[in-house]
Design brief:
Largest sheet of chain A: 2 strands, antiparallel
Order of helices and strands of chain A: HHHHEEHHHHHHH
Number of domains of chain B: 1
Structural class of chain B: alpha/beta
Distance between the termini of chain B: 34 Å
Order of helices and strands of chain B: EEEHEEHEHHHHEHEHEEHH
Number of helices of chain B: 10
Strand content of chain A: under 5%
Oligomer: heterodimer
CATH architecture of chain B: 3-Layer(aba) Sandwich
Mean pLDDT of chain B: 91
Structural class of chain A: mainly alpha
Number of helices of chain A: 11
Number of strands of chain A: 2
Shape of chain B: globular
Strand order of the largest sheet of chain B: 6-7-8-3-9-10
CATH architecture of chain A: Orthogonal Bundle
Strand content of chain B: 25-35%
Mean pLDDT of chain A: 91
Shape of chain A: globular
Number of domains of chain A: 1
Distance between the termini of chain A: 54 Å
CATH superfamily of chain B: P-loop containing nucleotide triphosphate hydrolases
Helix content of chain A: over 70%
Largest interface: A-B, 23 and 31 residues
Radius of gyration of chain A: 19 Å
Chain lengths: 298, 236
């Protein structure tokens, strides 16, 4: 029973981190139709900024805020000064589809190299603001700690705020309209370019938050978010790439699959489970389980 | 206040879609641009709303050039383009679609008033506010697209093929509603149509395009009664 409860709880807290990463990928995909591989680099960079601020201020919370804000700034800067010019310059030919994606790959390598240049290619750690020792459940210590609980709560709050932003505000309506149909949005007077940059900023902020929630249970180094990027991407594909709800649901499915496989069968099953799940979904329901995209009825 | 198109030439890919076209759209009038498929009507409209770049020539509204500007800036300055087909965002509700062109407007009271006016003329939209726009019929979607443009209180309305894919009865309704809007809201309208007769019946003026060139500009009534224009370009 303890093993089951623990597996459920750890599934939820790791699923929550995957969900944030998945959301940041989906936000960029929806607004620009680009799979943003640079997100792993952006998240590491902003988590390193969060790390520096945490060390200097002595407060994880100030570091967390710094990571989220710098995540938004880095995302906005990348879109405004890197992606937007690429979209403007690359207009026709087979390169149109591939250039932006290759650009994000190039950016990923560049950001990771810059991080290595500044902070070195070593492992650092960020101390968690609350205990990482497992709770004592019915006399046994389980693999779910107050920090895991904090991760779950923080990610849930972030997702609720995003839902409110998207569903209840004018900015959210502009974001959705620009994602569904940039041309109609423009013709309605919406500054789609600026809205896209905002989408990249929100995605970057989510990535920064994911990094600051991920690292205290692990380590920080230039490639620290590579696995998280892959898991976030798998979750996004399970969810259909287009839907924020799908991203969260896909992340939870992935979290549960990984944690139950490792908890009940073998700790070595992390990647086999994740990729087997990805391939199964692609074979059985390639548009994702929760795809929100419907064909236009004309 | 008129739209003056002068010597406009536009390529669409490798094809010269619009060749040295000139005409004037008078203020508060409905001008129909008619012609067969491939006459260059849509290309012309997309250029006037900033979606496409012209090769040469000029087009001014109130003396200011409308060429090579961003569609969103033109929209905010009062030039609204309802693009071809039923240009609504299917994934959004009717209410959200209508709200789009009011989002950036400062005068929120007037946005609410404009929304009421649109619903008054087209009550079906009022009954469907909470529905996903993809669930609307073709005619309803066209009404929504036009209604959305009107929330911005445009001065110049560019309509691309509002009758496309609609049943004859619905087409008549749409044309009548357009006429009502034009009169009530003091609009200047450019209506691009393949349905020449229907368009000319509600228009004040007609411009006949053939293979990218203007072949006739006259009052709508004259065009409807001109046997040469009728047989050569209108096909009836």
């Amino acid at each position: 029973m303890n093993q089951f409860i623990t597996a459920v709880l750890t599934s939820l807290s790791s699923g929550a981190i995957y969900a944030l990463m998945s959301i940041s990928l989906v936000l960029v995909w929806r607004s620009t139709r680009v799979v943003n591989f640079a997100q792993a680099g952006q998240a590491v960079l902003t988590t390193f900024i969060g790390y520096e601020v945490t060390v200097r201020s002595g407060s994880y919370w100030i570091g967390l805020i710094a990571a989220v804000i710098s995540g938004a700034l880095v995302g906005a800067i990348i879109d405004r000064f890197f992606m937007r010019p690429i979209f403007k310059r690359v207009k026709s030919g087979p390169i149109v589809m591939i250039a932006p994606v290759v650009a994000t790959l190039g950016l990923l390598g560049l950001i990771q190299a810059i991080i290595g240049f500044i902070w070195g290619f070593t492992y650092v750690s960020i101390e968690a603001p609350v205990s990482t020792d497992g709770y004592n459940l019915f006399g046994t210590v389980v693999a779910f700690s107050p920090f895991n609980l904090m991760v779950l709560v923080a990610a849930t709050i972030a997702m609720l705020l995003l839902t409110l932003l998207f569903q209840k505000t004018n900015i959210g309506l502009a974001l959705r309209a620009s994602a569904f149909s940039p041309e109609i949005a423009r013709l309605s007077g919406i500054k789609v370019d600026a809205v896209r940059t905002l989408g990249w900023a929100i995605a970057g902020a989510a990535g920064g938050l994911a990094g600051m929630l991920y690292v205290p249970g692990s380590y920080l180094h230039p490639n620290a978010m590579d696995v998280l990027l892959v898991f976030g991407f798998i979750a996004a594909v399970i969810g259909g790439l287009d839907s924020l709800f799908g991203a969260v649901a896909g992340a939870m499915i992935l979290g549960f699959a990984i944690n139950f496989a490792t908890s009940y069968i073998s700790y070595k099953l992390v990647f086999i489970t994740a990729f087997a799940l990805l391939i199964t979904v692609l074979l059985v329901k390639p548009n994702g389980i929760f795809s929100s995209s419907k064909g236009r009825k004309d | 206040m008129s739209l003056i198109v002068d010597n406009l030439t536009i390529d669409h890919g490798a094809i010269r879609a619009i060749n040295n076209v000139s005409f004037i759209v008078p203020k508060s009038k409905l001008t129909a641009i008619i012609g067969a498929n491939g006459a260059g009507k849509t290309t012309l409209l997309r250029t006037l709303s900033g979606l496409k770049e012209p090769n040469s020539g000029s087009a001014t509204w109130n003396g200011e050039s409308v060429l090579n500007r961003k569609p969103e800036d033109l929209a905010r300055s009062g030039i609204m383009h309802v693009s071809d087909g039923k240009s609504v965002i299917s994934e959004l509700t009717v209410k959200d679609n209508l709200a789009l062109s009011g989002l950036w407007r400062k005068d929120k009271k007037d946005v609410a008033k404009a929304t009421e006016e649109v619903i008054e003329i087209s009550p079906i939209l009022g009954q469907r506010l909470g529905q996903i726009s993809g669930s609307l019929s073709g005619g309803e979607r066209q009404m929504l697209a036009i209604g959305r443009a009107l929330i911005a209180r445009p001065k110049l309305l560019l309509l691309d093929e509002p009758s496309l894919g609609l049943a004859p009865l619905i087409i008549e309704q749409i044309f009548q509603t357009i006429k009502t809007f034009v009169t009530k809201m003091d609009l200047t309208v450019v209506l691009v149509e393949q349905n020449a007769v229907g368009a000319l019946k509600i228009a004040d003026q007609g411009v006949v395009l053939n293979l990218g060139s203007v072949v006739a500009v006259d009052s709508a009534a004259n065009l409807l009664n001109d046997p040469v224009v009728r047989s050569a370009y209108l096909g009836f």
